[in-house]
Design brief:
Strand content: under 5%
Largest sheet: none
Distance between the termini: 18 Å
Number of strands: 0
Number of helices: 3
Structural class: mainly alpha
Number of domains: 2
């Protein structure tokens, strides 16, 4: 997936990233009582497999921001 390729580029540049929430909310065990099944919300399910987090915090400086953006832009596909 694109996520893995972008994360690998970030890691190669010494920039951390993380994957959270790989199971969409409607498929979480705690919400099983709602009755949703896999396939009920396909876009949500797809996005859960594609999202990731880049470094961000209250005091992140402009240089660090620019480095993260530069690596992501260089490794991400161009939307058509």
């Amino acid at each position: 997936p694109e996520r893995d390729r972008i994360r690998a580029a970030l890691q190669e540049a010494g920039i951390g990233s993380a994957v959270y929430y790989t199971t969409p909310m409607h498929l979480q065990p705690a919400l099983a009582y709602l009755g949703y099944q896999r396939g009920a919300l396909p876009v949500t399910e797809q996005l859960a497999q594609e999202n990731f987090s880049v470094p961000i915090w209250a005091g992140i400086d402009a240089t660090t921001q620019e480095q993260v953006v530069s690596v992501v832009q260089a490794s991400a596909p161009v939307a058509s």
